[in-house]
Amino acid sequence: MAWQHIRIPRFGGPEVLELAEQPTIPDPGGGEVRIKVLAAGTGFTDTFIRRGRYPDFKGPLPFTLGYDLVGVVEATGPGVPVELAGQLVADLCIVGGYAQYAIRPVRFLVPVPDGVDAAEAVCIPLAYLTAFQMLTRYRRLPRGATILVVGASGTVGTALLDLARHLGLSAIGTCSASNVATVEGFGATAIDYRAGDFVAAVRELTAGREGGAGVDAAFDAIGGAHFARTFACLAPGGLLVGYGAQTMAVGSAGLASAALALARLKLWDMLSSFFGGRRTDFYNITARRTARPEDFKADMAVLFGLLRERAIHPVVIDRLPLVAAREVHIRIDRGGLGGKIVLLPWPEV
Ligand SMILES: NC(=O)c1ccc[n+]([C@@H]2O[C@H](COP(=O)([O-])OP(=O)(O)OC[C@H]3O[C@@H](n4cnc5c(N)ncnc54)[C@H](OP(=O)(O)O)[C@@H]3O)[C@@H](O)[C@H]2O)c1
C-alpha cells in the first residue's frame, strides 16, 4: 500500500517541503517498531532544521521533517516485545514525524494513556517536556515563586505558563500585543516586548518584593544578546535557564554569536557570587535525554498523567492534513501563532 510523508530534498524556505509517496509500507528492523502516526507536532524547531541551521541535525538529505509524533505501534521488529503492538506511543524523533508511518527505535518510546487526544498528546514530547524539566529539574521552586517566560506565546512558552499555573507559581510572560490574551489566559501577567523595555517592566512589577526586585527564575527562548537582558530581570539568587537560539535559527546571528552567548551564560554562572548568587544554565532536550533517559521517561509519564487528568491544557490552534505542511511552515516563519499546529496524517473518519 502506498503511503505519504513530507520530504525535503534541500535546505531552505517553506517551498522545500514536498508531499511524497512511498510504494510499500516498511518493516521494522531489530530493536525497532513501525508506528502508524496519528499526530505529528510542528513548530519553530522544525523550521530551524529546514533551514539547515540546527546544530544537532544536518541531514543527510532528503529526509522527512517532524520533531515529535504520537501514533500506534503496528509492527515490532526482532528483539522487541510483540505485546507492544497496538500500544499508543509518543516519540521525540527529531525528524520523521510528518508521515503516515515511521520506523523508530523502541528505546525512547513512551506509552500514551488511553483517553487522551492525540493532537494534545503530541504537545508533550518537545514543548511540555522542555518546560517541565526546566521548571523542575534545576531547582524546586516553591509555590508562590515568580517566573519570567520570554517568548511566552510560543509552544514551550505556553507550556511553561500552563505548568507554572499547575505548580502554583506566579508567571510574567513577554509576547507580542496580538498574543497578550493567550498569555493572560493562563493567569500570567503579559508584557508586550515590542512596546517598551521588558526589563524595566519586570523590575517595576516585582519592585518591593522581599529579597529584592526581580524574578526567582527566568526562561529565555531567544538567546544571543537577549540572555543579558533576561539575566537583568533576576532577583538575587534567581536562576536563568536559556533554551533557544532564535536569532541564530533565522539567520540574523551566526553560530559564533550563539556560542558566545552560551559562553557568557557559563561565565555568569561561574561568577555567581559576584552577581548576587544569580545562577544560569542552558537546557538541551536531546543532550539531557541521552544523559538521563530515566528522567526523560519519568517526566513524560508525569506529563501524560496530568494531560489525562486535564490538569494541563496544551494550545492546539489547528489540526491539518500532511498536505498543509508547507502552509504551516509559512505561518510559523511569519510568527505570532500563539500555540501549536498539529498535522493529522490520516483522514479523520
Ligand atoms: N533547547 C531545547 O531543548 C529546546 C527545546 C524546545 C524548543 N527549543 C527552542 O526554543 C525556541 C522556542 O521554541 P517554540 O517551539 O516555543 O517556538 P515558537 O512557538 O515559535 O515560539 C517562539 C516565541 O518567541 C516569541 N518571540 C520572538 N521574538 C521574541 C523576542 N524578541 N522577545 C520575546 N519573544 C519573542 C514569539 O512570540 P510573539 O509571536 O508573541 O512575538 C513566539 O511565540 C526555539 O528556538 C526552539 O528551537 C529548544
Describe the structure.
The chain is an alpha/beta fold. It folds into two domains: 3-123 and 315-343, Quinone Oxidoreductase, Chain A, domain 1; 126-287, Rossmann fold, CATH 3.40.50.720. The chain has twelve helices and 16 strands. The strands form three sheets. Strands 3, 5, 6, 7, 8, 15 and 16 form a seven-stranded mixed β-sheet that branches. Strands 11-10-9-12-13-14 form a six-stranded parallel β-sheet, with helices on both faces. Helix 4 links the parallel strand 9 (146-150) and strand 10 (170-175). Helix 3 crosses helix 4 and helix 3 packs across helix 11 (293-308). It is globular and about 65 Å long. The mean pLDDT is 95. Residues 43-45, 48, 126, 130, 150-151, 153-157, 174-176, 179, 193, 221-222, 243-246, 249, 283-285, 335-336 line the site of NADP nicotinamide-adenine-dinucleotide phosphate (NAP).
Broad structural category: alpha/beta
Name of the CATH class of the largest domain: Alpha Beta
The proportion of strand residues reads 15-25%
Distance between the termini: 19 Å
Low-confidence stretches: none
**Ligands, deduplicated:** NADP nicotinamide-adenine-dinucleotide phosphate
Fourth CATH level, the homologous superfamily of the largest domain: NAD(P)-binding Rossmann-like Domain
Number of domains: 2
Any guess at the CATH architecture of the largest domain? 3-Layer(aba) Sandwich
Kindly state the percentage of residues in helix: 25-40%
Describe the sheet with the most strands.
7 strands, mixed
Q: Tell me the overall shape.
A: globular
Would you give the CATH topology of the largest domain? Rossmann fold
SS summary, helix count: 12
Mean pLDDT: 95
β-strand number: 16
User: What is the CA-atom radius of gyration, in angstroms?
Assistant: 20 Å
Order of helices and strands: EEEHEEEEEHHEHEHEHEHEHHEHHEHE
